[in-house]
Write a structure and sequence with these properties.
Layout: H1 5-32, H2 39-51, E1 58-60, H3 61-65, H4 72-84, E2 88-92, E3 100-104, H5 106-127
Antiparallel strand pairs: 1-3, 2-3
Helix pairs in contact: 1-5, 2-5
Length: about 130
Amino acid sequence: MAVNTADSRLEARWRDILSVHARTMCEIDRVLHPHGLGASDFEVLDLLVAETRDEGGQCRVQNLAGRVHLSQSALSRLIGRLEKDGLVERSVCAEDRRGVYVTLTGRGRALHAEVLPLQRAALARMLGPAEEE
């Protein structure tokens, strides 16, 4: 059966995206490893920094779940590791006992600030210069 040329191009483009993603995640892992973080750890810290600017310092785990590329259980394990390392704290929502909040600790904010330039430099190396808007 002949393969549709448009489908072939679409599949090749998809594989290119996956390849760039995999290489970029590996590079971020490499530069953050000496600081005890991986790419997914950083992503959660980075989202918490952004999410907690206006939320009084807390973010619901379910808000993170929709923004990271991890399953709910993998995210829960990751947050558990970050909590064990003293980078975040978890608490139960008083209004809805099923809800769980995550809060960055001072140590978590400091580590994020320390490694942010490393992560951004890795992105720049792997993805090229940012386009001017």
